[in-house]
Request: fold
Amino acid sequence: MKIKVNRIKGADGPFEIVWDKLGIPHVYATSVADSYRGMGYAAGYERLWQTHLSCAYANGEAAALLGERFVQQDAFQRSFNVHCGQIGLSESKGDWIADAYLEGLNAYVLSLDEIPPEFLHAGAEPRLFTRMDIAARYRFTSWFQHKSWTEKMMLGRLMATHGIDYFSNHVLHLSNEDRDLINDLNEPLRNLDPQIIKLAYPEVEVPTFSGSNNWAITGELSASGKPILATDPHQPHSLPNTFFYIHLNAGSWDAFGAAFPGVPYFMMGYTPDVAWGLTTGFIDCYDLFIEEVNDDQYRTESGWRPVEIQQEVIEIKDQPSRSINIKKTHHGVLLEPFMNELGMSDSKNNKYQTSLYWSLQNVPTSAGALALLPTAKSAKEFGEVLFENNVCPLVNNIICVDNDSQIERYIATTTPVRKGVTGSVPLAGWIDKYDFSLSTKDQLLVEKNPKSGFSFTANNDTMGDEGDFYIHNFPTHSARADRISELLNQKKKFSVEDFCEMQLDLHDLRSIEVLPDLIKVLKESDDQDIKLAAKILGEWDSNTSVDSIGACLYYPFLDRFWQRKYMHTVLQDDLINLLPMAAPGLNRFDISSFLTEGEPWIKHEELLKTSVQEQMKTVMNRVKQELGNDHLKWRWGDLHQIAFKHRLNKHKPWENLKLGPNQIGGSPTTLAMAMHTGKGPGKVADGEIPCRVFHGPAYRLVVDLADPYHSKFVIAGGNGGRPDSNFSMNQYKSWLEGSYYTLNLKREELDEHSTWEFL
Reply:
């Protein structure tokens, strides 16, 4: 089926968009600019509301679109220039790509004969988009993805209140200078307002956590003789999919990748020359400062300076606009006055207040830099494009491998270069040496042509103690990264099929680390149920398939956070209940971490054992309620299921956009990542899923540069976003079963669904 479409204003010539039967658009043009015009038009067609909504979040205009509950979020983001409003945009060599993309996207908006249903539902109208929207989207991703400053705040207060040694074993990095700071700032740290945490988790339906796996090998390790790359980004499961997948062609130039709708940036993708994969870096690009304040002045090393006042006017849907006064130091927003201004707190702590620094708050960024990535001809050139004027508005680990088997791995970000301190705890605002410089490209090239012939990341600490400064203060556990390394060391040659199998791997190395201590404690109980639990876990092979019996106990046990109850009993501090035990950053609370000789927890060993045993008793009872008394009939898949739907599923015309429930294997620490709610059996309403999987691979991709025109991929759901799309859910079954499609990029080989001709 062919559809003729009016030529996009400014286009270099005719081009076409061919939609294949999987729902992937292929733009065939005579110029790279026209291919990006097609990309923008196709993204508008399938994902216009997603683009509109994400721009509202990024620009601090969510309250105008969605209502009063977003006022705090909008004001907070604007005070940090997430939207570039106070600092403007920098120029980029890639602006021509951004402009071409915008021409295509806006051409679609202008072509609309009627308002799309999402806009009607929200009482909004489509609008045109600008470079500022693209730049804000990049910056918002960096700003929102990992709020490490909340962990700094909680750790600082807990250590100051109860003693450093209670928590030093639960933090990845802690220097002697960090310890000195905690002692020197003891009083203000102990008085930190825990309500501050509310600022980090506003009412916004975008990911607050993400993950991903990626790895690449050189041709020396490949069966084909050319490099192979595998990547699977982890996102909350949703309809539509987080990413928009598209192929661009301009003569001899081809590029396929995954992009956020509304931006011309392939987060993961490949060309015949290079392939790249991305993971969330859990990069610590924030610093938290204790400021000494006297009326409208704050202390610095050179004397007292006036507190700055920034006024923001927030437009609110169906209400008058609201003017908000934001107090700032040269570090950033003073948090307690901000909360008072918004009625979130009535803190009277006037002498010491907390300010927040974000690395990009005063750094202009562009709309076009990242758009140039697919034009790179080598891994080296890719790195040069990734950092524009030594700035990168991301918080990711990126591996790039080229056709000549050159590998470069970057921490793609802009972050403080900390000296002496790690950044794990708050800093003294009146000490100049904590006003750190920002990182450069050369400091963030962390691996080049490794001797092993492979490179990988999985949200782990990718630097260790080898770097000049600490970047990952709060990474995830290394289990997935360790498993990648283990598997890549098992063979001398790998195929595409081998990498697909790796992406589906269900072996949990983290459990192997945890189980011996857990089983030992359980065996000390006289309770028969607890002894049975020890036996079941002792026989478990750490495989997390749907048929697993041991997983039925292990993960619900972890979900219930025995650590919180235990620590709260010891310390009698309600802040313990806010610690993200299972989240990235503070996931080092296992049994062994509390039993280190010479540390204060060892005095409470018997309480720890009782807490663990009582937790397992509760879990056994709840699992029996769900699965029956015969443990030989237990199956992980009966507890662990996936179901996701469109956020407007309760309204027409989205009522049929839902998937599942279906049984699924995996866990948060397997390569086949599957993060569940953590509620566990017995804490959900009737008919609900005990362990509902809500987060995992948004898609899987494996590409061999020996044949970049035929990669293996599959999407969780589909590529469509319209309520009437044929492609919103068409790949779900294959994704769930662990099968892959062959993505053809050659025009003559496409299994064509429809073609749009731009004449």
Observations:
- The two ends are 16 Å apart (CA to CA).
- Residues 509-542+549-634 form one domain.
- Residues 204-208 have pLDDT under 50 and may be disordered.
- The longest helix spans residues 32-58.
